[in-house]
Amino acid sequence: MAVSSFVRTRIVIGAVALAFASAPRAAAGQASDPPPATGARVGPLQIDPTIAVSVGLDTNVLNEAEHAKRDYMVRVNPQARVAMRLARATVAATVAAPMHHFRVYTDQDSNGVRGELRLELRLNRFKPYVNEGFVKSSERSGPEIDARVPRVEHILGVGTEVTLSRRFTLTLGAERTVSSFGGNAFYDNVNLSQALDRRGESAAIAVRYAITSLTRLVVTADRVRERFDFQRERNSDSLRVLPGIEFDPAAFIRGKATVGFRRFDVADGRLEDFSGAIASVDLSSTIRDGTLLAASVRRDVAYSYDPIEPYYVVDGIAAAMTQSIAERWRITVQGERQRLSYRGIDFGRPTSFDSAERSTPRVDQLYTLSGGMQYRIRQNLGVGIVVESSRRLSGMVRREYKGTRFLSAVTYGS
Predict the structure, then answer these.
(1) What digits encode the pLDDT tens for the residues 254-277?
(2) What is the Cα–Cα distance from 379 to 381, expressed in whole angstroms?
(3) Cα separation of 3 and 109, whole Å?
(4) How far apart are CA 115 and CA 131, in angstroms?
């Protein structure tokens, strides 16, 4: 997609978000199913736009261990969700166009387009679906790669939900993912396209049992195949089994928690396979009027760009609290810790890739702490300030960094 096409797409999405900011509410005849305060309904079409604009200072733009570079930045994130019901079909689409601009270090500017489309059919006991996702972005792609480089990801999934009884449902699904970096995308002297371009295929089955109308037990099992375009020794096959519990958004505790097992077999015989516990937890609760608590836990395997340590086990935990004061003020505090435990090849042997620091498996630890205050001008419009501090500790000193962001923000629709 050409740069001009990116610009046109972002302008269109931003215009949609701003145009619907002043759209009228639905007519009184639709009061039984009213749209959210941030959206508008046009016949069967529901449109919910959001937009966030942040302006501030980043004290370490490149996440450098020494001689950190600071710069002023602007971040804009327009997003719109569109949903429509027609007879037995439901179509939902989400599109976003995040932009990140720096005043001096313009080579760090990032932008992109993210989209997702899902079609569901309700056929008595069966609910087949098709979903497609697309990402074209130059934002940072995770906790490991600090460079802002172009990447593309495309996801296509199909499946069906089957109602077995009043309490039991069965879900069958398959998904294909294609991930690629630009051919000139380098980080730490590694060509990211050569290291990480790959295709993934998965097949999953999930059984759910409704304990109550708000609580379900779930057991999910899936097989995953990942095949790399260039470095085939990175190819892997995985089996995951995850029992857990799901809570309805109307419950006192909301979200999902699963804890299970993963077997991760790598094609390269020199590299240790992984067999162990994994987890995915995202829970929140309003404990009393005006106080929202949220917590998340993650443990799983992820690929690294590093040719010597091709994958790592990530352990992450995060918590947040939002407190409403009076009617219009909100204070938010949140913290996160991630631990990246790398699995490597032939530790201790001489290499041309930081051999002096490779005598033992590397462990990186990332800490993020942030706090902010927001004033709600009205229900769906707010202004505020945010301070975010982050730090990474590593077995490789040059990978360490610390930095702080000071931001003022305007949000609509969130």
Answers:
(1) 999 999 999 999 999 889 999 999
(2) 6
(3) 13
(4) 11
Q: What are 43's two structure tokens?
A: 């016949």
pTM (predicted TM-score): 0.85
C-alpha span between 344 and 277 (Å, rounded): 19
pLDDT digits (tens, 9 = 90+) for 330-382: 999 999 999 999 998 864 444 444 544 555 789 999 999 999 999 999 989 99
CB 273 within 8 A of CB 263: yes
Q: How many CB atoms lie within 10 A of CB 151?
A: 22
Alpha carbons 34 and 41: distance in angstroms, whole number: 9
Domain range summary for the chain, segments of one domain joined by +: 1-24+36-106+362-414
Taking alpha carbons only, the member of 24, 91, 74, 20 closest to residue 50 is 20
What is the Cα–Cα distance from 192 to 326, expressed in whole angstroms?
Answer: 50
Say which residues have a Cβ less than 8 Å from residue 307's Cβ, sequence separation at least 6.
190, 195, 231, 353
Q: Which amino acid, residue 171?
A: T
322 SS3 class: strand
Q: Residues 18-56: pLDDT tens digits?
A: 333 333 333 333 333 334 445 788 888 999 999 999 999
Contact indicator for 306, 312 with CB cutoff of 8 Å = no
Task: Please state, in angstroms and rounded to a whole number, the distance separating the CA atoms of residues 386 and 57.
Answer: 11
